[in-house]
Specification:
The protein is mainly alpha-helical. Among the domains are: about 5-235, no CATH class; about 390-445, no CATH class. Helix content is about 70%, strand content about 5%. The chain has helices spanning about 5-10, 30-45, 80-85, 90-105, 105-115, 120-135, 135-175, 180-200, 200-205, 210-225, 235-250, 255-260, 265-280, 285-295, 300-315, 315-330, 335-350, 350-370, 375-385, 390-400, 405-415, 425-445, and strands at about 15-20, 25-30, 55-60, 65-70, 75-80. It has a 5-stranded mixed β-sheet. A hairpin with a 3-residue loop joins strand 4 (about 65-70) and strand 5. Helix 5 (about 105-115) crosses helix 7 (about 135-175), helix 11 packs parallel to helix 13 and helix 12 runs antiparallel to helix 13. The longest helix has about 40 residues, at about 135-175. The chain is globular and about 70 Å long.
């Protein structure tokens, strides 16, 4: 099984790929990581006028240590950064730094600066980000990469000025949130070691971030103005973070690397090896480890989610449904990925009653996140199984709209409108899709 497919199945499912001759980028989703990051954001935003819901965080499957912000309130974090951060406070410090860019309005001013640099490049960059965030992922990443490559050299000095301001603001955010801001400096010291082993001077020069040693001096200066900032760590947050790091390591590093780094019998080591074993086809071994973890941590939904996915992979759908149901109950809050997953498991049984149940779960998933295109895909399949072709066409139209296939969305909406009862929510939405797309499709045809 290839790694991308495994990532998809193992609840890092909403991935987008931009393929070039050099590399592929994957934006991934994971409930455990998203929930933890939201909890950190809640702490950091306590004294601001922003809410967690105002911030969009995207995770990139990459072996490079990096994080950045884009127009609006979008934060992108590479998985390797999470792995390299020694504890949750270093991770929180990185998020605080990116929030400082947003709170300082740096992205707006960056847009103005880039407009002066090149009136032709900037539209490519903006359209790329718009496409990415609204679901047209492949075109989105292509636009982002083209835009960044075109402006990097000219933009470096301007961005570094902002980085200094963001580091100092991050110290204030962390201290006000009762998180020791020393860990921003600590992370950069760690990053400096990584960079000295992995990058050249020319690569550092092209970076929009200044060298870690320069940033450390700025942070130390800011810390002098926040002397009462040596707060104790939150043991629960640290425990959760260790598990997330282990999970990501198992996903993104080889089986042998995982065995070498995570070689004890504590929970995070077992978790890393359960993930790695699964990805390498050792399903029985992974299941055995997870059962041990579940026995000792029965309230943890993420262990149950993972073992459910292994059973699903082996076409043991009833077992998958059992564990995913237990995971949903332990999670305590509704989640679009979890609803999508159990909807998929129920649909896979091809039993009429269970497929009916799958429709309800998939509708919940979409209610929680209308941009979950895979839930729309599964819903179309479920409706088709039940011979409700008009609703299957409607769900397909929604999916194609999200992924940027406007012509196909329009065609399926036209098919759907003929069979959906008038004045129902689905009828109004289908009608809206047709009206939205009519002019665009007509223009492209001409």
């Amino acid at each position: 099984m290839n790694r991308v497919k495994a990532l998809f199945i193992l609840n890092i499912i909403l991935f987008f790929t931009f393929v070039s001759s050099l590399k592929a980028l994957e934006v991934i989703r994971d409930t455990e990581l998203e929930r933890f990051t939201d909890d950190i954001l809640k702490i950091l935003l306590t004294n601001s006028n922003l809410e967690v819901e105002d911030i969009n965080v995207y995770f990139i499957n990459s072996n490079q240590v990096n994080a950045f912000v884009t127009g609006g309130k979008n934060i992108f974090i590479n998985t390797e950064l999470i792995i390299e951060a020694d504890d949750y406070r270093e991770y929180a410090a990185v998020i605080a730094h990116e929030l400082a860019h947003i709170l300082g309005g740096h992205i707006f001013r960056t847009s103005e600066e880039l407009a002066d640099i090149s009136n032709r490049v900037m539209p490519i960059y903006l359209l790329g980000m718009i496409g990415l965030i609204t679901g047209a992922s492949e075109a989105g990443f292509a636009g982002v990469m083209v835009g960044q490559a075109a402006v990097t050299d000219t933009f470096t000095y301007y961005s570094r000025t902002q980085e200094a301001a963001a580091d100092q603001k991050a110290v204030s955010i962390l201290c006000n949130s009762m998180i020791d801001a020393y860990y921003l400096s600590s992370f950069l010291e760690n990053l400096e070691t990584i960079n000295s082993n992995a990058t050249t001077k020319s690569e550092n020069y092209r970076s929009t971030h200044p060298l870690p040693r320069d940033r450390i001096s700025w942070i130390q200066l800011a810390l002098k103005n926040n002397e009462e900032c040596n707060y104790e760590k939150d043991k629960d947050l640290e425990k959760r973070y260790k598990l997330i790091k282990a999970k990501l390591f198992g996903f993104t590093h080889s089986y042998d690397e995982t065995k070498a780094v995570y070689n004890s019998n504590n929970n995070q080591d077992l978790y890393a090896n359960a993930v790695s074993s699964y990805l390498n086809g050792k399903h029985d071994q992974s299941t055995k480890i997870l059962k041990k973890l579940i026995k000792e941590n029965n309230e943890n939904p993420f262990f149950k989610e993972l073992i459910g996915e292994i059973y699903f992979m082996n076409q043991k759908y009833n077992e998958a449904i059992y564990f995913q149901t237990a995971a949903i109950n332990n999670l305590n809050t509704e989640n679009d990925i979890y609803m999508m997953m159990i909807g998929n498991y129920l649909l896979s049984t091809k039993e009429t009653k269970k497929v009916k149940d799958s429709i309800e779960y998939l509708k919940k998933s979409i209610h929680l996140n209308a941009k979950n295109s895979y839930s729309w895909y599964l819903l179309a399949r479920a409706y088709a199984f039940m011979d409700d072709i008009s609703f299957a066409n409607y769900a397909t139209a929604e999916r194609y709209f999200l992924i940027g296939e406007r012509r196909l969305s329009y065609d399926f909406a036209l098919k759907a409108i003929k069979g959906i009862e008038e004045n129902t929510p689905e009828w109004y939405r289908t009608y809206d899709l047709i009206e939205i797309l009519k002019k665009e499709v007509s223009t492209n045809t001409n």
